[in-house]
Design a protein that fits this description.
Elements (H helix, E strand, L loop, with lengths): L9 H21 L4 H26 L2
Length: about 60
């Protein structure tokens, strides 16, 4: 019996997003001056792609 495998490419996008989050986390944690700015940095690292896309759409007037 032969099995068929379909690759959708979501794994690659997840890896790229994961590297972006890790890089942003390192950046925001390094620049944090207090505990609260560090916590805010963690939140920013998770949501920065959404903000980036929002700003891009805002710039393109979409």
């Amino acid at each position: 019996m032969k099995t068929q495998t379909t690759i959708t490419g979501t794994q690659i996008h997840s890896a790229i997003y994961g590297f972006g989050v890790i890089g942003a986390l390192i950046y925001f944690i390094q620049h944090a001056q207090t505990l609260w700015t560090g916590i805010l940095g963690i939140i920013e690292a998770i949501f920065w792609p959404a903000v980036l896309v929002y700003k891009l759409f805002e710039y393109l007037h979409i």
